[in-house]
Amino acid sequence: MIPSLRYAGETVVVMGLGKSGMTAAESLRAGGADVRVWDDQPNQLAAMTARGFSAFDGERANFDNVRALVWSPGVPHTHPKIHPIAERARSAGLKLTCDVDLLLESQPDASVIGITGTNGKSTTTALIAHFFQEAGRKTAVGGNLGVPALELEALGLGGTYVLELSSYQLELVPHLSCETAVLLNITPDHLDRHGGMDGYIAAKQRIFENQRHPRTAVVGIDDTKSAAICASLTADGVHTVLPVSVKQPVFGGVYVEHGLLIDATGQRKTALIDLKTVPTLPGAHNWQNAAVATAVALSHGISAEAICAGLKSFPGLKHRQEVVGIVGNTMFVNDSKATNADAAEKALLCYDNIYWIAGGQAKEGGITSLKHVFPRIRQAFLIGEAADDFADQLEGHVPFELYEDMETAIEEAGAAALKDENSATVLLSPACASFDMFKNFEDRGDRFRAEVLSLWPEAGERRP
Q: pLDDT per residue over 229-264, tens digit each?
């Protein structure tokens, strides 16, 4: 854990005591701060006071003599309604920060690569870090991915933090100053939390503010909103902009054409690798992730040869089109991270003859946007709160059954797929949040994997 020394001898309040909040409180205390903690959940607060922390009076929220307020990104503070503690803090002249900001304050000499976007952040972040680590660079990866920011290694000068940054976090990092900032894409998500699409876009654009030399901006241009941001950054004359596309050739960036990864950052374009040969990055959405990561690596002087080797050795991420195993002609794929329809679409486009396990806590719009991929689905196995609504939307298009638990759905889907004479895919890509039945999407994916390997132990012998 990195001690946060900036607030030694001063009073700091930590609001929200999940894993990152607890780590922030420990870091601040190790750095000599007088730490007061608060959580709307009494059991979380009691756990921290049992560890010797003083409780902040959240009911009256007096910020006299408080130097900083460290806010958990998971706790809404402005929308859908103003949190009273956040309102009082702002009235007292305090900015809300988070654990990522404490990391940036404590490691000002390290380089920072920040990655955001609606979809693909985690895979792209992990792939960039993989490139850097394979190239022998001193690197730590985290933020919205993996361990809390303050549990990362202290890198200092010559080190590079590769940070996945959510829209929630980007509202809480006043000290963010990336050498390289990445925007993958923008589609509607978390609109209630940001007060609408304009607020969501503004949060994403925050990644490009206050960049340090060389102010490199890597931007996917395959959606209109991201393309507009790319054009604006190009026009400002301040940023070094590298556009990325999987739909069209680009000048001065990286693109994918028929699966071929092409470096067009120099005077002439160079074909690097056929991404169809990389099993851990299937589909056009993963090609975008690979192209963006390649643009970042090239901008940091990593060779094309090292990038190609890194793509071939990349292990992929759990819960993101993770191939759990293969039985006969049937592949079992864990895409539990697909918590909205847009993310599920990416996986559904990668396979044919799909036995689809879906459902949970649905987001606005359900799966109406997926009608164009319904022909790829042989049968749907529906679970969770959204099962009835999904059934209504699938009626007349895709055969379906509803299940009380995911384990039964897995057993039935696997049995049906294994009887299929053609190659088939059992795909968990829920298009929903997980909290109706599971602790989080990781828990859902872990239970999918465990059940598949319990029912078909031989599946684990055949993985990419």
A: 999 999 999 999 999 999 999 999 999 999 999 999
CA nearest 410: which of 359, 347, 370, 348?
A: 359
Burial class (CB in 10 A: 0-12, 13-18, 19+), 245: buried
CA dihedral 347, 348, 353, 354 (to 10 degrees): 80
pLDDT in tens, 298-323: 999 999 999 999 999 998 899 999 99
Q: Which residues contact 327 (CB under 8 A, 6 or more apart)?
A: 414, 418, 456, 458, 459, 462
**Residues in CB range of 176: below 8 A, 6 or more apart:** 100, 101, 104, 112, 114, 165, 170, 206, 207, 209, 210
Q: What is the pLDDT of residues 85-124, one digit of tens each?
A: 999 999 999 999 999 999 999 999 999 999 999 988 999 9
DSSP calls for 140-188: EEEESSSS-GGGS----TT-EEEEE--HHHHTT-TT---SEEEE----S
Q: Is the peptide bond before 108 cis (omega within 30 degrees of 0)?
A: no
Distance CA 251, CA 264 (A): 6
Cis bond upstream, residue 430 (ω within 30): no
The closest alpha carbon to 356, from 410, 284, 433, belongs to 410
Whether the pLDDT of residue 462 is over 90: the answer is no
Residue-wise pLDDT tens digits, 35-86:
999 998 999 999 999 999 999 998 888 999 999 999 999 999 999 999 999 9
CA–CA separation, 354 and 360 (whole Å): 19
Q: Give the Cα separation of 229 and 355 in Å (integer).
A: 38
What residues does 394 pair with on adjacent strands? Answer: none
Does residue 147 register a pLDDT over 90? no
Q: pLDDT at position 189, please?
A: 78
Contact 293, 124 (CB under 8 A): yes
Residues 417-421 have a mean pLDDT of 97
Residue with tokens 């993996």: 146
pLDDT confidence bin for 342, thresholds 50/70/90: confident
Chain length of the chain: 464
What are the backbone angles phi and psi of residue 436, rounded to the nearest 5°?
A: -75, -25
What tokens appear for 159 in the block?
Answer: 């080190």
Residue 378 one-letter amino acid: R
Q: With a cut of 80, say whether residue 464 has pLDDT above it.
A: no
Domains of the chain: 11-97 (3.40.50.720), 100-313 (3.40.1190.10), 322-461 (3.90.190.20)
Phi first, then psi, for residue 181 (nearest 5°) are: -120, 135
